[in-house]
Design goal:
Helix content: 55-70%
Strand content: 5-15%
Low-confidence stretches: none
Pfam family, one: Tma16
GO cellular component, one term: nucleus
Structural class: mainly alpha
CATH class: Mainly Alpha
Family: Belongs to the TMA16 family.
Largest sheet: 3 strands, antiparallel
Mean pLDDT: 88
Number of domains: 1
Order of helices and strands: HHHHHEHEE
CATH architecture: Up-down Bundle
Number of helices: 6
Radius of gyration: 24 Å
Shape: elongated
Protein name: Translation machinery-associated protein 16
CATH superfamily: Translation machinery-associated protein 16-like
InterPro entries: Tma16, Tma16_sf
Length: about 180
């Protein structure tokens, strides 16, 4: 939470001997307070946008953390990794099919159905081109992923790769440019 407004308010209150009601609308101090408040609001908006943008990658890391724990905290073989990636890619299939069945024939798809379909297509395309994920075949990455507590900054410690459906594994950097 940005603290510019609080610091500015405290500074002005100190100068005015605790009485902020003596400020008039066009004074320098009032403008200073307003500017600090606008800055705090802008920083909060940016933080929310960043959090929303980072959320899919955090969910992905969480999914693979659970997969590693289910596998007994051991590095996984290529077949097991592909199986987990396919499970992740097809996670919305069941919900999509339920929505499709619930829709009456001849009716256009719902917005939720369209969003799910687009999400599924995006994941399929990413898997064909190279699925961005932690390297689960590397023992150090597996142990680090197990210790991960959900914070963004810790993910830089992991080794990341792009795994394609054909089996090609390419090293990748964190954070990704596009996801």
């Amino acid at each position: 939470m940005p603290k510019t407004f609080e610091k500015t308010r405290k500074e002005i209150a100190k100068k005015k001997k605790g009485n902020l009601s003596t400020l008039h609308e066009k004074s320098r101090d009032a403008r200073k307070l307003h500017k600090a408040q606008v800055r705090d609001e802008r920083l909060e908006k940016l933080a929310e946008a960043r959090k929303k943008r980072d959320q899919p990658l955090l969910r992905r890391a969480s999914f693979f953390q659970q997969a590693v724990r289910d596998a007994g905290l051991k590095p996984m073989e290529a077949e097991a990794i592909h199986a987990k990636v396919k499970e992740y890619v097809h996670q919305f299939d069941e919900e999509y099919n339920e929505l499709k069945k619930a829709r009456r024939p001849g009716r256009p798809p719902t917005t939720k159905e369209d969003l799910l379909r687009m999400k599924m297509e995006k994941l399929q395309k990413e898997y064909q081109d190279g699925f961005y994920m932690p390297d689960l075949s590397h023992a150090e990455t597996v142990s680090l992923l197990d210790k991960w507590g959900g914070d963004w900054s810790y993910l830089t410690n992991l080794t990341w790769v792009r795994l394609s459906a054909s089996g090609a594994v390419k090293p990748a950097k964190f954070p990704p440019q596009t996801l």
